[in-house]
Amino acid sequence: MAKNYISYLHFVLFFIFFTVFPSKLTAQCAGDDNVNELICDVTNPIYQAVNLFSLLGGSPVPGGTWTDNNNLKGLNPATGILNAQYILGGGTYRYTYTAPATSGCTDNKAVVTITIGAYVGVGSEATICNEDKKFNLFTAFDSKVMPPHVNGWWTTDTGAPVNAIIDVENIDEKTTLHFIYTVPAVLACSPDEKSTNVQVTILRGPKAGEPSHLELCGTTDLAGYTDLDLFDQLEKEDKGGTWEGIGLTSPTDHNINLQEVFDNYGPGEYSYKYTVLAQPNSNICENKDATVKILLEKRLDFTGSKIVVSKDICESEIATATYSAQITQGLDPIPNGEYNVSFTVSGPGASGSEIAKANFVNGTFNFPIRSSYFKQVGEYTITVTRIVSTTSKGLCADIFSPFSAILTIYPLPRLDNATLAAIPVCQNDDATIQVTAPQLLDGRYRISYNINGDNLALGETAEMQSVGGKASFVVPEILNARSGLSVITIYSITNITNPAPQCTNTANVAGNLNINPLPNAVTVTAAVKDFCLNAPVTVAVSGLGNLTDASISYMLSESNSSVVQVVSKAVTNGKLDFVIPAELLLNTGSTKITLLSLTNTVTNCDVNLINVTDDFLINPIPPAPIVIDQQFCKVDGAVIANLEPKGIQYKWYNSATATTPLAADYVLKTEDYFIRETSAAGCTSEPAKISVIINDTPAPEMTETSDFCGLANPRISDLSAKTNVPSTVAWYDAVDGNLLPSATLLVHNAIYYGYDLNETTRCLSENYKEVKVSLQDCEVEQYDFFVPDGFSPNGDGVNDSFVIKDIEFLYPNYTLEIYNRYGNGMYKGDNNKPAWDGKNYEKSGIAGGIAPNGVYFYVLHFNKDNKPPKQGRLYLNR
User: Fold this and answer.
1) What whole-number distance in Å separates Cα of residue 432 and Cα of residue 442?
2) Which of 223, 428, 513, 752 could cross-link 422 (Cys pair, CB 3.0–4.6 Å)?
3) If you write DSSP's letter for every residue of 159-202 in order, what string do you get?
4) How, if at all, do strands 364-369 and 350-361 pair?
5) Would you say 434 and 350 are in contact if contact means Cβ atoms under 8 Å apart?
6) Which of 596, 588, 528 is nearest to 567 (CA)?
7) Can you point out the beta strands (E) in 529-642?
8) Residue 613 region, left (φ>0) first, then alpha (ψ -120 to 50), else beta?
9) Are 38 and 113 in contact (CB under 8 A)?
10) Could you say which DSSP state residue 639 is in?
11) DSSP code at position 705
12) Cα-flanking dihedrals φ and ψ of residue 793, to 5°?
């Protein structure tokens, strides 16, 4: 109703306008205004070309221009022809005509007013696909007639307002919707609104799903993709579609073994298309497909790859040289394609890194290197630090280690300020020329040289190795045939360390070479005496002239033969001698020595010797004597002369290497001895060893004291019983004295010498046990003693002294006092003075007068065990 009211209001306003102003206005040369031209049925074809000029009143001047005051479509401003069907809305519209400027009018404009009636169009049915997402309802009108006016509004069949463009994306099944389109009334043509119905059927389009792609390293990442379900790579897809792609066995197969795909077809991007068909018999929705892309890259293995840089140059080529490098693949093929190669250059005064982009073709990659790096002599290292395919996404961890090549700029070889020196050589020998060149770098060189002087040669060449500014080359023996002075001059030098380049430079270096003469061998002779086997064989060489030091080579033949031997000795008065090594003379018999060459060791010049020989004998060595080990008693003092065997042909030594024999009176010890036999030819045998044992028996030891009781009549056997060797001990009355029988009675305070006899070796001990015997160790209770009551000191040998027998054994410290009847002392005795011979010893300390016959008294002091003295009397009768 609100829209109807608005249309009515428009009509009233137009009516007031047209009643206030006259229907025709004078515009002079532009014509008169046209107040209102009604076009109520705008669909009539005649309104496709409305001539506005014809609608002007008055006498308009043609040739002017038209202006659409409403800025709508359909007007041709030059002709004034209007296609009213281009105006998509009912209402009143004005168009202004402007007369041409040549008309001279002051009022040169006129207006034509046109009212177009409402047109709602012809509603129709439309079938669309929800994949269109949005649908413009105006497209559902019948396209055979003009489109409806667009100043209307849309509602659903329930009256709910909607936009002309509706969303259909979320409609997930076939749906039919009804809409009503209404345009407002144009009162000049009709008081009512106009409406039409539109039906829209929405079909659901197929869904192939949203793919997610895979990017994998085919070399290392496919263990978990041997049964890949392609549906796992889709989301929101309709089932029932078909698949196509490498590795699938049928349209319904959706499982793929990526490992087999990679193994059979290699790296690359593989596409797997999933297609879902639209509803049958419908051309509204299109078939849909989604493609799962799987990128499989290969791990590149650059192991063994190499780089070669072209090329080494000489110093003189620096300004003009260009450089390039070539990389070759290792054992693992590198696929053809574009790669970025990162590399560095380092060397004298150069340091930089670059990336070269080029193609690997059949396993090789070529790229240039800027010459600005290479401005000095030296070695430059070109190191490849990385190789990456420009198409790679880095899915694989390539196997790569930096690898390098060296480009060398060689200096020109220089012999500036060089010197030549040569050690003198012999005629017909190679000569070594020492080159000292401070400016010559380490390396191998070829030189050209001339020889002048006593020898002459031109244009010769040689090679030499320079180390630390020093080198040497050889002048061959054929150029040194004459002794004397040769002058060597180097005039050219070429560096040949590498096959290319060979840098060459001129030179001018000279030096002297002295060539020594060969020694004279005409008078040389050799003489050798006969020798024993294993003895040093001396060779006497004479006829060596004025040589001071010489070296001679020789060889042996016949019974003893050898390879060439060399000996060097000083020469005195034309002679020298030397010893043939013993290992060359292992056989007896006749042997020949042949001198082969003679060398002057001062000049090292040598010459071959002809027919310088001598024969000599090597006499046999007698066999080592047959001997056995021998034993002696130490007490016997055995000497060398006691050893067996005996004879003047035998000599004894105390070591196998001793050269001085032992004297015949050399006292034997427990040690090894060696005997040699000397033959009639003066040859001495190898030593035979014997072991000599000098047996010694320890002296006996006392196990008890040597005290006895004399009253028990102890004997030698009793003394033996008190030793550690009672059965083998022997006693002597002195050292080197008499052997005492075992029954010999012991003597008080006597000294005895005991020796032990070893029953096994039958050796008497060298040392002895010296024992002093006491017979005073008696038990008083066991023995009695008798004091005689008289004696007869008449010299008849019977009872001539007064002695108390055996008292010294019982009371060794006793004292005896004898008095006369007047109490005068006559004698004092003890163990050391036991007998009274009847004299008075108390007068003047000397034997006084002879005691007369008579009675005398004694006092015996025992001095033992507090025993009281004993008194008694005795009778002296001569």
Assistant:
1) 19
2) 513
3) S-EE-SEEE-TT--S-EEEEEEEEE---TTT-SS-EEEEEEEEE
4) antiparallel
5) no
6) 596
7) 531-532, 537-542, 549-558, 565-570, 576-580, 589-600, 605-619, 630-633
8) beta
9) no
10) B
11) -
12) -80, 65
Question: What whole-number distance in Å separates Cα of residue 195 and Cα of residue 610?
Answer: 147
In the DSSP assignment, the letter for residue 47 is: G
- Please list, residue by residue across 608-628, b when 16 or more beta carbons sit within 10 angstroms of its beta carbon and e when fewer do: ebeebebebbbbebbeebebe
203: nearest Cα among 235, 177, 237: 177
Q: How far apart are CA 455 and CA 476, in angstroms?
A: 12
In the structure encoding, which two tokens stand for residue 90, read together?
Answer: 């009912």
Q: What tokens were used for 81?
A: 């022809």
d(CA 473, CA 22): 133
What backbone torsions phi and psi does residue 609 show, to the nearest 5 degrees? -100, 145
| Residue position matching structure tokens 């069907």 | 85
For residue 524, the SS3 value is coil
b or e along 346-381 (b: 16 or more beta carbons within 10 Å of the residue's beta carbon)?
Answer: ebeebeeeeebeeebeeeebebebeeebbeebeebe
Write the CA distances from 587 to 211, 409, 624, 681, integer angstroms: 102, 67, 17, 16
**Contact present, 181 and 167 (Cβ < 8 Å):** no
240-259 in b/e form (b: 16+ CB < 10 A) is ebbbebebbeeeeebebebb
Q: What angle do CA 460, 463, 465 make, to 5 degrees?
A: 150
Q: Count of alpha carbons within 13 Å of 717, Cβ hemisphere only?
A: 5
Q: Do 324 and 364 meet the contact criterion of CB atoms below 8 Å apart? A: no
Q: What is the largest CA-CA distance in the chain?
A: 238
Look up residue 655 and give its two tokens. 């070591």
DSSP, residue by residue, 414-442: --TT-EEEE--EETTS-EEEEEE-TTPPS
Buried b (16+ CB within 10 A) or exposed e, 105-118: beebbbbbbbbbbb
At residue 610, the pLDDT reads 93
Element (H, E) at 12: helix 2-20
Q: Distance between CA atoms of 243 and 254, rounded to whole angstroms?
A: 6
Give the C-alpha separation, 177 to 167, whole Å. Answer: 12
Contact 516, 603 (CB under 8 A): yes
Tell me, yes or no, if the pTM score tops 0.70.
no
Which residue is it, tokens 């991007």? 269
3-state secondary structure of 124: coil
Residue type (1 letter), 162:
V
> In the prediction, which pLDDT does 282 show?
67
Strands 364-369 and 323-328, bridge-based pairing: antiparallel
Give the span between the Cα atoms of 535 and 580, in whole angstroms. Answer: 10
Contacts of 127 (CB under 8 A, 6+ apart): 200, 201, 202, 203, 284
Q: Which amino acid is at 166?
A: I
Mean pLDDT by 10 residues, the chain (878 residues): 35 34 51 90 94 92 92 92 93 93 81 95 91 91 87 94 93 92 94 94 92 95 95 94 95 96 94 90 85 96 95 91 96 94 95 95 96 94 96 94 94 92 91 94 92 94 95 95 92 82 91 91 93 92 94 96 96 95 94 96 91 95 93 91 92 92 94 92 90 93 90 91 92 92 92 90 90 88 84 90 89 92 91 90 62 92 91 92
* Helix (H), strand (E), coil (C) string for 747-759: CCCCEEEEEEECC
pLDDT of residue 770: 94
**CB-based burial label for 693 (10 Å; 0-12, 13-18, 19+):** middle
pLDDT score for 784: 79
Give which of 201, 200, 159 is closest to 180, Cα–Cα. Answer: 159
Do 429 and 477 meet the contact criterion of CB atoms below 8 Å apart? Answer: yes
